[in-house]
Design goal:
heterodimer, A: alpha/beta, Rossmann fold, 11 helices, globular, B: mainly alpha, two-stranded antiparallel ribbon, 68% helix, ABC_transporter-like_CS (chain A)
Chain lengths: 290, 265
């Protein structure tokens, strides 16, 4: 399923003294079975944009196409349930949304809301719990007895169990330990490849953006500053740094190295391995030219 | 959903009323609440109307925004008006539909009571619109100081109030976030039967309660860690200062009472 926006603009608190333009001139497309990362400084409008992807917010100007549903500015769309089933959002700190007595019930909550019969919902819950790496004996526990990391996994499983076609993630690993981060990010990447779904990831981690995404959208002050493949985006690292954004570690290292050497060692690299190869090529070339 | 609510909301613009000491505003409103009952005829209500309008004007709050936010209250006012018209049976009959008789006293009473209601609400909302919650509690604490003589916990009460007020916006944000998260999981808060909607509240309230308790505990720990130990000997960062303008405002409200007294019948 494809999601696209046309001239999307969004204002908070329209017609009050608190009116604030949060997004403008947004034209983005999220193709089927893609992995898109949205990066940008705090307050650049990333989270606001996310909420348009399943109709939680409606644009004040322009339109959003979600599959074959169109959400237009000014026209109140009544039945958004089918859209919300297809586009699952994992919000920041999703563990704050847990409320059921047991982990299993909480994971089943989404599927049941979308009309899945109980038996089937429980099967889906079991599968989702496995995907996020929750052991089976936790299923009958209260979610509030779990550790923060486990609660996060329960909340993510709650969205996965809805089996969305597009999975929207708002900093899903913020506050997790490094191993948990890796596991969860790998799980999303596998899911995207194997189940042919799309993933939209909002992140502050440039490593994650460059490693997993095939498109990157850079947001700045409420609009799209740049979009393209990770190679395109990170090929001008200085621009990103000027926007107050970080760049992947490999690029940071490369920039420092080039500054020391006073010359370029070639194209930007997106991973440490790639960088190591490039440096070795550079060193060999350097030694032959001497 | 909640963005149109203006009850208890502070609007940060610059105006004469914003600059006043919260104590003078609190006193002026208290006096106003009493003197509004002096008015009992067209002239006195007219004077009150002019006063209310001038007060609104000097607050620099966009009138349209104010009225939009008070829409709910207007239904209440219309309701009281209708009650008076329908159930007062005094004076001459003005209109007679057979099944419905409107009496002269009913009409005047209805108009006067609704106006009184309207003025009260407008003037009291001006307090919260032009004064930050912190200022209001500081002002109250300062005004209630004499009560400490009879061991009334003035400081604790003020602290409780300021914490409650401080967390209203936080709680609203949190409600909004959890609502959205549950909506993304298929909860529909605005459609369906009353029973369904009542059920939809559960996944909203439970997380909200849990986070409130957590936050309360964290706040208590943070306060202790920073050496909080009650109001004894505690100094204030924000000093209240009473200026000539504050005295003038009190005098204006008092003289309004005097004028109303002269013109009442």
């Amino acid at each position: 399923m494809e999601i696209s926006t046309r001239n999307l603009e969004f204002k908070y608190h329209v017609n009050t003294p608190f009116e604030r333009l949060a997004l403008y001139d947004i034209n983005v497309t999220i193709p089927p079975n893609s992995y898109t990362a949205i990066i940008g400084h705090t307050g650049s409008g990333k989270s606001t944009l996310l909420q348009h992807l399943n109709g939680l917010l409606q644009p004040t100007v322009g339109e959003v196409h979600i599959g074959d549903v169109t959400i237009k500015a000014g026209i109140k769309e009544k039945n958004l349930r089918p859209v919300r089933k297809k586009v699952g959002i994992v919000f920041q700190f999703p563990e704050h949304q847990l409320f059921e007595e047991t982990v299993e019930k909480d994971i089943c909550f989404g599927p049941l809301n979308f009309g899945t019969p109980l038996e089937k919902a429980r099967k889906k819950a079991k599968k989702a719990a496995q995907q996020v790496g929750l052991s089976e004996d936790l299923m009958d526990k209260s979610p509030f007895e779990l550790s923060g990391g486990q609660m996060r996994r329960v909340a993510i499983a709650g969205v996965l169990a809805m089996e969305p076609e597009v999975l929207v993630l708002d900093e899903p690993t913020a506050g997790l330990d490094p191993r948990g981060r890796m596991e969860i990010m790998e799980m999303f990447a596998n899911l995207q490849r194997e189940q042919k779904i799309s993933v939209v990831l909002v992140t502050h981690s440039m490593e994650d953006a460059s490693k997993y995404a095939d498109h990157i959208i850079v947001m700045h002050k409420g609009t799209v500053y740049k979009k393209g493949t990770p190679k395109d985006i990170f090929s001008s690292p200085k621009e990103l740094i000027e926007l107050g954004l970080d760049v992947p570690e490999s690029i940071r290292f490369q920039l420092k190295l080039e500054e020391k050497l006073q010359q370029s060692i070639g194209k930007v690299t997106l991973s440490i391995d790639e960088l190591a190869r490039q440096i070795s090529v550079y060193l060999k070339r350097g030694s032959t030219s001497q | 959903m909640m963005e149109k609510m203006i009850f208890g909301r502070y609007i940060p613009v610059n105006s004469l009323l914003h600059k006043l000491d919260p104590r003078s505003k609190l006193c002026a409103i208290l006096i106003f609440i009493f003197i509004i009952f002096i008015a009992n005829n067209a002239i006195t209500y007219g004077i009150l109307a002019i006063f209310t309008f001038l007060a609104l004007y000097s607050s620099n709050i966009p009138i349209k925004f104010l009225f939009n936010g008070l829409k709910f209250i207007f239904y209440l006012i219309v309701f009281t008006f209708l009650l008076h018209i329908l159930f007062t049976r005094e004076g001459d009959v003005l209109v007679d539909f057979g099944w419905l008789k409107i009496y002269e006293r009913g009409l005047t009473q209805g108009i006067f009571i609704s106006l009184r209601f309207l003025f009260l609400i407008l003037i009291t909302s001006l307090l919260t619109l032009t004064t930050t919650p912190i200022e209001i509690t500081d002002g109250m604490e300062s005004l209630m100081k004499p009560l400490r003589k009879i061991h009334f916990p003035v400081h604790e009460l003020a602290l409780m109030m300021s914490i409650a007020l401080r967390f209203i916006p936080t709680l609203m944000d949190e409600t909004d976030k959890i609502m959205k998260a549950q909506m993304a999981r298929g909860v529909d808060f605005s459609h369906g039967s009353l029973k369904r909607r009542a059920q939809a509240i559960v996944p909203l309230l439970i997380p909200l309660f849990i986070s409130s308790f957590k936050r309360a505990e964290e706040l208590a720990v943070a306060m202790e860690a920073r050496g909080y130990r009650g109001g004894e000997g505690r100094t204030k960062y924000r000093q209240l200062n009473w200026r000539t303008m504050d005295t003038i405002v009190i005098l204006i409200v008092l003289s309004l009472g005097g004028i109303l007294f002269i013109f009442r019948t």
